[in-house]
Amino acid sequence: MKTKLYPSHWILKFFVATTVMLLWSLTTWAQTLPYLVENNSEYPDNQVFVAIVGITDGHVWVDPATGQVHPMSQSDNTVQGPVNGGNQGPGGDGKYANCFRRLSEIPNHTINIPKIAGCRIMISFESQLFLYFFGHSGNPSGYAAPNLANPTDPNQGIKFELVELTFNDYGLWCNTSRVDSYQYPMGLEVWGNGFYKKVGEKKTHAQIISQWQSTAPSEFQSLLNASEGTIHFPTKTSTFPSNFFQSYIDAIWSKYSSQQLVFNSGQAGVWRGSVQGNQFVFTRDGDGQVATIPGKPTTIEAMEGSGVMASGAQWDLVVQAQFVAAITRHAIDLNVGSGVLQDFGNISSYYQTWPYNWYAKFWHQTDISVDGQTYAFAYDDVFDQSATIHTPSPTNIKITVGGFYGTTSGGGSVATLYQHCDYGGYSASLNVGSYTLGQLQALGVANDDISSLQLQSGYQITMYQHDNFGGNVLVKTSSDNCLVNEGFNDDISSVVVAQVSSGWSTTIEAENTAVQSGTQTEACSEGGLNVGWIDANDWMVWDVNIPSNGPYTVEYRVSSPNSNGMIQLEKAGGSPVYGTRSVPNTGGWQNWESVSHTVSLTAGQQQIAIKALAGGWNINWLKITSAGGSRTAAEVDIKTAVSTDKLIVYPNPVQDLLSLKVPGNEIIQAAVIHDLSGKQMIQWAEYEETSPLDVSQLKAGHYLLSIKTSTGSYTTRIIKK
């Protein structure tokens, strides 16, 4: 029986505090994740120090050696720390928290961490860090973290790194970070149910420092503290030019005082705006939402996302985040005409035109960081360039202190084949390349004997039924815990492993056809031309070079006063047909919306075509993006609903009430909404389909919705208006 779903805080108010604490303790102890800390550094285990701090029912610390959770207390401040410049610390006695343990003291180098929010795993070298605990709850509470901007901070001169994470009923969010500084190479790997991803550095500390010294432009050389071997974010040093970006920012504000900037922000829509006075004012296509940058930013504000770049309501902040990322990457093209759409998600344009934040470019180099993903500045998650790893069903985590250089994980092995489902039996690791049956057998793989595989993000594996790449074919771009589900169990005789540019994307202006039939062009309200007068059986052909075999999200910018338009995507000539997509009623011939679908394309220079199965619509452009790096790969028309496999969420964007639907006999057992940092916003304990979720209390913005059903779990993105 389905019962009505109530927000968790309504339920909890019926329990006394001691009962809540008991239930929480039992739950967290029963549900922990193992974090293996592998020491690949120059420091022995007894010179590597580990601490875990975070939030459960209040501020807590986890003993790395025992896994025991302790409420933070001033009584924990028992370790004598250094006194710099007379600074005796918050307690006035030079004492700090006894929360660090040497790696040599941690059994099997494995930390068991319960469900926790805002967690930091702090790792320091040669000395523990000196944190001060204020307390578990109340005011003050929490802890004083290292503040290297303070010359009397007790942590001055101590090299340290950290892993940030949130772990709850709906998954794990974790990352390494270079937002403030680089101090030592780190690696992070996460496994889940059919999931594997890793982030981190691929070179030794000495190699990274040497490469910085030999390649950094003069403006960035001083970010390196050679005596400590640390590299700081530009605004964290007094020597970095405070006006570094000012000429670029001035040019942006000047150009768009008389012209219009139009940019695609991904899921947040297309925005168009101009400078009014000193403010940059934008409106969003489709709903007229207004967002403002309240003044021209300084270099520091543009690089840090502070001041005028961190001011106002939700949609102001969304546009400001886009600008921080675009200025950092020099993604705003000043050579584009007024009103012409700019795609800020085109990663091939990042860090190409000076000035840009070279510090960020350095950490995004693929020879430095795995897949070029890292957190080099605060809004590096704009268009998915950050080092965040998320999975709803984590099983284990590995932290590699010192990064991946010289390890199996970092040695180029990107795919692992397993004899049995769920990664059991013998295994064989594969680098990028082609493997015949003989080559597989030389690695210990028997013919027709593979049942599961793990694959790093950014790669794909093509499996063939017969030797020498013949017979039936299965292409995977992610791990698969059981090939029985694919109808390909014990049926592999040759494979090809290839790298896929997870962020590859190309935008094709519709009017730039190689050949067409029945269509005409006209002036477009979004700038330039669009293709119109499209009737049934009209068609258009474009030239395109697809980088690799695999899934791609194809997005169409369309308009129509009708609701019966239909697009068929095909190879020029009509075969094969890749897929179809309906065209919604957008409210007029020049009212534009984006719709998309995911199709499978083959690699190479080729011609793709659109055939109008039903006419009565216009098209401005189409965009093809590798599905592995696309935020929208699993979306249907976001104006109406979002579907993730079986889960249907509508309406999306949502104002107040959100409805969920799953097929068949599945029952939704629980639901939770997090913001994009992993912070839990609302949780419901039960669900009734006739009573939608009340999300009216949420601020406008983007969120993650996760649900549990009687047979599984789902996570998708929602937009709150």
Short description:
With 721 residues, this protein is mostly beta strands.
Annotated CATH topology of the largest domain: Thaumatin
Q: How many E-type strands?
A: 51
Domains, number: 5
- The structural class is mainly beta
Main β-sheet description: 8 strands, antiparallel
The CATH superfamily name of the largest domain is Thaumatin
**CATH architectural label of the largest domain:** Sandwich
Structure description:
The chain is mainly β and 721 residues long. The protein contains nine helices and 51 strands. The protein has five domains: 31-169, Thaumatin; 246-354, Beta-1,3-glucanase, C-terminal domain (Metal Transport, Frataxin, Chain A), CATH 3.30.920.50; 412-499, Gamma-B Crystallin, domain 1, CATH 2.60.20; 505-629, Jelly Rolls, CATH 2.60.120.260; 642-720, Sandwich (Immunoglobulin-like), CATH 2.60.40. Strands 2, 3, 4, 7, 9, 12, 13 and 24 form an eight-stranded antiparallel beta sheet that branches. The protein has a five-stranded mixed beta sheet with strand order 8-1-25-15-16. The protein is globular, with a radius of gyration of 27 Å.
